[in-house]
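Hey, resending since the last one bounced:
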Amino acid sequence: MTSFEYTSNTTMEHLAGRLKSARKVLVTSHEKPDGDAIGSCAAVARALRELGIENEVWVQGAISDSLLEFVPDLPIREAPPDQPSDDHDLVVIVDTGAWSQLQPLESFLRDRRDSIIGFDHHARGDDVASERLIRVEAASCTELLVSLVDALGVSLEAGGDDSGRCSIAEALLLGLATDTGWFRFESCGADSLRVAARLVEAGADKSRIFRIIEENDRPARILMSGRAQQSAEFICGDRAVLMQLAPADFEETTARPEELSGLVNAPMSVRSVEVSVLITAVDADGVKVSFRSKPPLDPGSPFIDVNQLAAVFGGGGHVHAAGARIQLPLAAAKDAVRDALVAALQDAGFVDSGSTV
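The structure tokens again:
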């Protein structure tokens, strides 16, 4: 029995053909949808709408108010509590291929592998889609989807009003800008910048996107940021930091889980920190863990691959940004993550093998 490899098994032209021949398409992405997930879903949905193909977008869990501002033209359904009907002849999954990130729709998807196609830029995933296109070199899933829109023969300017709002280009730039930290991350190279330039030329307003995403918080998010930073535990000579948020933090600040995006990045401003982790317990069923790390300071310098670190807990993502779920209480999960962090820092040579926290 051969082991499964999460790699492309088809071409963009073939997947575009499947989409063009579909009658009704369901478009979805991972739980806790971010800018890349929503941008990817919106771009696919709008391109299909331009072709006259019926479709609907399903999100898995609530999305932030700021992201909702980019999809007022789309009828979005949420799972749970709802589940899709059986009348879709094609399902498109974007920005993930991992069952661990598709739990709200897992029962619906499990029986439909042959009618599922996937587009992703992550290195890890499962055998969810019968046909998939994976480009790990893409800085975002939306960067990959620019080629899909081209293959469908749809204009990037389509779907928007006179100012470019709600266009395909806007949705694609939303994903690319947010997944690259506004073009700061190492994943953003010359190709990504060329794609961004093309999207801006097609009418996407980067200043509008930045304001809605980065300057649109409720006061509750600021309070949660303070609580996360107050919980910061620096370990291994301040090479790593662990933060946590408990259910009581949500209750007392009225913050929502979808408002936590980016909180894990705050300690990265500390010079000595190589990796930052935020552990969030929304309820008693386990925790969500977000991992971030810095790229090497110089070629050949050590760094922490948080994709590998997240894999210890069954998660994954990218070299410098990843996540996982751990079915443990908050305190036990924090202990397990701390142990894994120490081991990773030791393996990378940041601390001696005999060092403790």
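The two ends are 42 Å apart (CA to CA).

Sorry for the duplicate.
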